[in-house]
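Re: beginner question about structure tokens

> Can someone show what the tokenized structure looks like for a real chain? I only ever see the sequence side.

Sure, here's an example I had lying around. Input first:
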Amino acid sequence: MKKILLVSMFIVAVATQVQAQENTEFKANTVEFLQLTGAGKAFESAIDQIGYNVSAANKEAYTKEATATLDGLYEKMAELYMAEFTPSEIKELVAFYHTDLGKKLAEKQLGLMQKAMAFGQTWGMEVSQIAQKYN
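And the corresponding structure tokens:
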């Protein structure tokens, strides 16, 4: 009976360790995917914009401290994507972003999103005016 219990505990421990290792690899792949998409450039741009008024004397310290927060942000975002995509899907996305087309998309994505947001705002105002006609 003791042997069965010990073997069972050993199997559970090994399975838990394997699952934790797989989850660590999954998270690392997901963070790589996020970085490959150009999110890093967007975050760096945001850090620059938010710290625009930081004095030149403090700019380096600000940038270092603000950049250090990115690991936590990537971790949270990875969890979000890990809930929606399987490990194999993330691997496929990473592979795509390593292609020429994927690199081009990552390079252009931030600018396209900014322009699309401007279009969306203009469209929203247009629809708002239509709605006002019917109030």
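Each token stands for a local structural state, so reading them left to right follows the chain. Residues 62 and 132 are 45 Å apart (CA to CA).
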